[in-house]
């Protein structure tokens, strides 16, 4: 098929086209067409999905796992909100879908005229969504203020490239606001280095709560000299000044004459190490705007091309590929081009033979995104796992929720254990298995010392001694972040899950005594079970059940209720089903939880009006909450009751919450967690035992999905899931075949995916007997 000339190449003209012909560079070539019928997959991605109703995504420019994520900030606490109509600046660092303010460092905004304001809420520029465009690696908006300025953004791994098209004026400005980030700014300095260069250092802190500070270094170089400059400190403006430092807010501006040449380009490089690191990153990755934008789009086209779908309505395909795109935005490169990075001991180290990554929303991502990346990005996933081990080696303990170079201690439980054991089962820790196991064993059996900034398993002393974390709501926090004692019930369930997957790793490595010990602890969830209510309840320090007996109102569950957390026992669902009275009793409770009768009558309305109550409405509910992590596995519990068709009914209803619109994200995306849930559930293969190697099956929503896999980890190099004729009507599995052989189990193992090639579903309009036998259900880990 003949390829059309890319619009960026049309704008750049014959010079760039000639350069493409001479160099033959894949970075400059038109993007590959990996979609059906030559369709560019990047054209199916809508970066605005999730920018409204607290999805907290961003529409700006980034490459997969890039350190820089250059995007507009409109005044929302996490950056951009689709309902806003003023842009305060384009800043270098964002995290996709987080629920608390962080990043937004160095917002930069083009203006015209005299510089008279230093508060970006006052000098913000008006815009309309009609004048806004975005695709993977590129963002464009026309600012209605200041005579009309067009701003374009693109990115490399460590740099953000901007192009501003000004009106004809002698006072075209670019404002650098070092003192107004999304987080709390501790101290900043900014310097006009020469006639083309601006440098800044920003130290900030905070994520949901106060944290240790981190420091970011930036260097911005323009494509031509500016004609004037100045700085500000607080409200005071100093034209001609070259430097400013402050604890309260400062910045700088540079000026251009655009009466003849209206375009101004600039590259901003960042480093978490030092100013020299930012300079090296800039030199290594600086290129013209069009070349950078084409390279970014090509990187995304290749990444998205690892998953090719056939069938499905256009809106579903757009929603799917947009979810896949967001799944590859984090974690983020943390090392500079020379391999140096700042460790959690706040010292400079060098990554030798791997790329160092940072930003660890582990409580969220261990349930979905970690598994998706292990399949589709195993090389990067290996480096991510090694990066987490470096945190332990250099900082003294494994992380819980890490931002940049610091631990925030946000959320509860022990999410790092299933994250690393998942990497182990995918072969990503080859050569580092015992190193990882030693770190996990230390984490599972101990508590970080008082002088450490980590909290780890804060309630571990009581948990190891008594089998549960006591609910101590009045206990004073001695370290920033959340306390496991404040959420004793959910912390106990999370610890037990982690113990279960660690027992499996210990057994596989030959540590039999440890395996037995952790397997025993994995059943500590039973210590929370109250036979009088039939639900889990927190216990106080004396062992008595604490708080309300109403499972919808019980305290001690982080961002959820006893109704929602009752299914968080993936390591031993057969044991849980026994506690609940057997398969039939468990099925009745699941039916109530999902409002199953109403669901069958109207799936989409039930999902939106019964399940969903608001992006942060976590409590006082007895129904499924598809917007938050504790419930992500719950629909697949029906597999263990012998009713796999009910899993499909619930999953397909939940998928209707993902749409191709700014409101099309269900709750915070949490660094790709919810997006990965959508991708895996749409494919029909979902990790029902996070941290282990078991994947539950449900009916795919596409006729066919082809996964292109890295042969270094998956020797076959591909895995195809097919379900010809799948639809809202024909959504029930009649039979499954794996590489041509009948497959009666409702699950696969990671090894089956590694060694297999074809998973074929036959579907129909009615439930069948497939997967209903006692041996068809996922086994307990222990």
From TrEMBL:
Keywords: Signal
BP terms from Gene Ontology: carbohydrate metabolic process; glycoprotein catabolic process
GO cellular component, one term: cytosol
Residue ranges constituting the Glycosyl hydrolase family 92 N-terminal domain according to the UniProt record: 44-271
Cited SUPFAM superfamilies: Six-hairpin glycosidases
Gene3D superfamilies: 2.70.98.10, alpha-1,2-mannosidase, alpha-1,2-mannosidases domains, GH92 mannosidase domain
GO molecular function, one term: carbohydrate binding
Signal peptide: 1-29
Domain Glycosyl hydrolase family: 277-764
Region ranges (Disordered): 762-782
Keyword Signal: yes
PANTHER family the record matches: PEPTIDE N-GLYCANASE PNGASE -RELATED (PTHR12143), SECRETED PROTEIN (PTHR12143:SF39)
Name the record gives this protein: Alpha-1,2-mannosidase
Phylogenetic lineage: Bacteria, Bacillati, Actinomycetota, Actinomycetes, Kitasatosporales
């Amino acid at each position: 098929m003949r390829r059309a000339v890319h619009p960026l190449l049309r704008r750049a003209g014959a010079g760039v086209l000639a350069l493409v012909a001479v160099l033959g560079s894949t970075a400059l070539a038109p993007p590959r067409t990996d979609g059906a019928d030559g369709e560019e997959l990047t054209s199916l991605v809508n970066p605005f999905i999730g920018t409204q109703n607290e999805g907290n995504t961003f529409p700006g420019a980034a490459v997969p796992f890039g350190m820089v994520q250059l995007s507009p900030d409109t005044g929302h606490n996490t950056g951009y909100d689709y309902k806003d109509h003023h842009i305060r600046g384009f800043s270098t660092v964002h995290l996709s879908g987080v629920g608390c303010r962080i990043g937004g460092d160095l917002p930069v905004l083009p203006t015209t005229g005299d510089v008279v304001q230093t508060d970006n809420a006052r000098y913000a520029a008006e815009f309309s969504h009609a004048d806004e465009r975005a695709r993977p690696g590129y963002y464009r908006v026309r600012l209605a203020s200041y005579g009309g300025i067009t701003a374009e953004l693109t990115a490399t791994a460590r740099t953000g490239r901007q192009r501003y098209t000004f009106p004809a004026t002698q006072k075209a400005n670019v404002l650098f606001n070092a003192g107004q980030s999304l987080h709390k700014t501790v101290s900043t300095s900014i310097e006009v280095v020469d006639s083309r260069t601006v440098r800044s250092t920003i130290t900030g802190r905070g994520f949901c709560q106060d944290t240790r500070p981190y420091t970011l270094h930036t260097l911005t170089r323009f494509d031509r000299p500016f004609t004037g400059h100045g700085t500000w400190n607080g409200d005071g403006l100093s034209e001609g000044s070259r430097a400013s430092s402050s604890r309260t807010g400062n910045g700088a501006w540079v000026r251009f004459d655009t009466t003849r040449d209206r375009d101004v380009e600039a590259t901003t490089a960042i480093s978490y190490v030092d100013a020299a690191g930012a300079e090296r990153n800039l030199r290594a990755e600086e290129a013209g705007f069009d070349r950078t934008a084409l390279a970014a789009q090509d990187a995304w086209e290749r990444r998205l091309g690892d998953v090719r779908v056939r069938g499905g309505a256009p809106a579903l395909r757009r929603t799917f590929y947009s979810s896949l795109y967001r799944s590859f935005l984090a974690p983020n490169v943390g090392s500079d081009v020379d391999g140096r990075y700042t460790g959690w001991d706040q010292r400079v180290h060098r990554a030798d033979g791997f790329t160092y990554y940072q930003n660890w929303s582990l409580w969220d991502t261990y349930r979905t995104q970690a598994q998706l990346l292990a399949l589709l990005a195993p090389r990067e996933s290996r480096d991510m796992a090694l990066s987490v081990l470096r945190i332990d080696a250099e900082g003294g303990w494994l992380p819980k929720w890490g931002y940049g170079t610091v631990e925030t201690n946000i959320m509860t439980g022990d999410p790092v254990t299933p994250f690393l054991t998942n990497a182990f089962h995918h072969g990503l820790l080859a050569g580092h298995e015992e190193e990882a196991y030693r770190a996990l064993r230390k984490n599972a059996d101990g508590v970080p010392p008082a002088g450490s900034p980590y909290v780890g398993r804060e309630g571990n002393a009581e948990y190891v001694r008594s089998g549960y974390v006591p609910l101590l709501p009045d206990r004073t926090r001695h370290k920033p972040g959340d306390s496991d004692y404040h959420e004793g019930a959910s912390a106990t369930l999370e610890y037990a899950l982690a113990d279960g997957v660690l027992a499996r790793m210990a057994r596989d490595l030959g540590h039999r005594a440890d395996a037995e010990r952790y397997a025993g602890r994995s059943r500590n969830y039973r210590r929370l079970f109250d036979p009088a209510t039939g639900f889990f309840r927190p216990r106080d320090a004396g062992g008595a059940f604490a708080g309300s007996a109403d499972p919808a109102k019980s305290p001690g569950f982080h961002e959820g209720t006893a109704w929602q957390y009752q299914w968080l026992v993936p390591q031993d669902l057969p044991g849980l089903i026994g506690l609940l009275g057997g398969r039939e009793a468990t099925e009745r409770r699941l039916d109530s939880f999902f409002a199953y009768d109403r669901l069958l009558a109207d799936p989409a309305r039930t999902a939106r009006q019964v399940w969903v109550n608001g992006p942060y409405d976590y409590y006082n509910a007895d129904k499924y909450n598809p917007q938050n992590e504790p419930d992500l596995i719950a629909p697949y519990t029906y597999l263990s009751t012998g009713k796999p068709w009910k899993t499909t009914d619930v999953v397909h209803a939940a998928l209707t919450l993902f749409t191709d619109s700014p409101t099309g994200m269900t709750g915070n995306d949490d660094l790709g967690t919810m997006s990965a849930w959508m991708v895996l559930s749409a494919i029909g293969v979902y990790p029902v035992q996070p941290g282990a190697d078991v994947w539950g099956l449900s009916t795919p929503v596409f006729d066919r999905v082809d996964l292109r896999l890295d042969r270094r980890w998956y020797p076959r190099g591909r895995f195809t899931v097919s379900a010809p004729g799948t639809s809202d009507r024909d959504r029930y599995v009649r039979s499954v075949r794996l590489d041509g052989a009948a497959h009666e189990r409702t699950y696969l193992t990671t090894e089956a995916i590694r060694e297999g090639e074809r998973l074929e579903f036959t579907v129909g309009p009615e439930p069948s007997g497939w997967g209903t036998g006692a041996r068809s259900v996922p086994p307990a880990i222990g």
